[in-house]
Amino acid sequence: MNVTSPTDAVHGQGGSASSRLTGSRRGFSVRSLLPLALVAPALAMVLLLFIYPLGYSLISAFTLPEGGLGLGNFAKALELYSRDMVFTLVIVSVSTVLIGLVAILIGGYLLLGEQRWAVRILSVLYRWPLFIPFIVAAQCMRTFLAKNGLMNNTLTELGLIEAINTTSFLDWRGIIITFVWKQAPFVTLLVAGAMAALDRATVEAARGLGAGRLRVLVQIVVPQVMPTLVVGLILSFVTMMSVLSVPMMISGGHPTMMTVDMAFRINAYGDYGTANALGFFSYLMTGAVAWIYLRRGIDKEGAK
Amino acid sequence: MTPLALALRRVPHAVILAVLAFAILGPISNLLLWAFAEQWYFPYKLPVTWGTRYWEVVFRPSGDAMASLGTSVAIACFTVLVCLAVSVPAGYALARLKLPLRALIMLAFLLPQAFPNLPVYINVARIFYSFDLNGTILGVVLVHAVHGLVYSVWITTASFAAIDRSLEEAARGMGAGPLRAFLTVTLPLALPGIMASAIFVFLESLDEFTGTFFVGAPEVTTLPLLLYTASMAGNYQIASITALILLVPSVLFMLVVQRFLRADVLSKVGR
């Protein structure tokens, strides 16, 4: 921190003067390639270890088992797993929407809540699952949501349900609950951070004009943190599309998620064609979501 | 307002917080119960016999768990080194220097998180097979590092971008070379963000399951793989204790994360 104090004064007097200084120095720089050289190693890693295998998977998806190109793998994937594809898309979409809602509500409460004690408790509470790995979350839920798990036992003890009526949540509901439990804190952290960085004047002004807190949240706060929210939700969507442990550990039966099918095709049959065709479908689903994000970005650039 | 009315206004808040606390902490409590249960079966609502017998099984020096823990931590440390080595220069260039196609380059680092990983891991495993990288620590480190790059590059970029440019320019104005200005002014100021990204990468690697499942198994057994095997075999005590080992660093980081990731950095993530 002692670095900032003397230089703050310089900044206070006029950042423009110092930037003019460096502007005049830029002339002798031979380093138009330097920025690229700095980025190159990181980019090379992505190219070799991600883009290349990604291309490999695309080619493999269109390569028939007997050789030659064709759509045979897709036909087989659709025939065997179309139900699981719909199941996957629905589960991940519902989870994403729920995560967004939870993040906005918790973030909004933290920003606008007037019961200080409750805000303080909530800000400590919501983050617990933040960095808990999916596989640990799955193990927690595997016991918590079971027919004889802590959830049902607590509800019965409180007299909220009859012991006979308890059911296991270890099916599609369990997957959604686990996803929301695990991912909502991550998106909330991003959103709450963006909300904290907002200019409070607009919020105060709207409150002063008599707008309710919910209205301030929906009409003033959420639009301003939208970019952060969308980034968080897209990352969550894709993460959930690739999680193998949660569907395997929470819900063993059918229908199941595409990740389980892909692992099965590889481990049981060494069937890379069908697995990669399934992979292609999961790329399409996330591609559609990423497209929404990219289009937003382009719109924003256009607006400038 | 009367004290009674004030107290009454607190009730709905307290009820909602209690429900939320149960939803958030309940699953973790169930894990704790299993870790200390020696016997627990239907219809008992709590363990029938308590004890730490399974802890001795897990923490036997010769046991699988200790070996997996060592493997996991070693892989995570190597992954952090690889990520930081490439991300600090990249983050600086992305935040401060003129780069053609900057937005596209930023997106490239998002790619490993913007596409579902599992089908890619399948093919990484296939490619690694011909380079004898399958089932090696190096292979697993590389897979984890690519996945971690988005955190290290984006957070590093955001922390460099959040630093007042005039500080660096003042150092340059006083005669410091570009490298010296970077090392003595910019880097120290960006350090909290870089540390945060390092911890992100460490935890991502420590917790990673899918990539290790395809590229590392069965030769490389990390804690998540051990946990999975134990859980699927119905050995809930071993699974829960392994899960607890993974839980400790996660919860610790959760408690301190905001000290590293300030709001001004967070608001620049993804820009």
Please give a structural write-up:
The complex is a heterodimer of chains A (304) and B (271). Chain A is an all-alpha fold and 304 residues long. Helix content of chain A is 77%, strand content 0%. Chain B has two domains: 3-50, no CATH class; 63-266, MetI-like fold (Orthogonal Bundle). In chain B, 77% of the residues lie in helices and 2% in strands. With 271 residues, chain B is mostly helical. Chain B contains twelve helices and two strands; from the N terminus they run αββααααααααααα.
Task: Tell me briefly what this model is.
The complex is a heterodimer of chains A (304) and B (271). By secondary structure, chain A is mainly alpha-helical.
SSE succession of chain B: HEEHHHHHHHHHHH
Q: Evaluate the radius of gyration of chain B.
A: 23 Å
Shape of chain B: globular
| Secondary structural class of chain A | mainly alpha
| Strand segment tally of chain B | 2
Counting H and I runs of at least 4 residues, what is the number of helices of chain A? 12
Question: What is the H-and-E element order of chain A?
Answer: HHHHHHHHHHHH
Topology:
The complex is a heterodimer of chains A (304) and B (271).
Chain A: H1 4-25, H2 34-62, H3 72-112, H4 116-125, H5 134-144, H6 150-157, H7 172-196, H8 200-208, H9 213-242, H10 245-250, H11 258-269, H12 272-303
Helix pairs in contact in A: 2-12, 3-4, 3-7, 3-9, 3-12, 5-7, 7-9, 8-9, 9-12, 11-12
Chain B: H1 3-35, E1 37-39, E2 49-50, H2 53-59, H3 64-96, H4 102-114, H5 117-130, H6 137-161, H7 165-173, H8 178-207, H9 210-216, H10 223-232, H11 236-260, H12 263-266
Antiparallel strand pairs in B: 1-2
Helix pairs in contact in B: 1-11, 2-11, 3-6, 3-8, 4-6, 5-9, 6-8, 6-9, 7-8, 8-11, 10-11
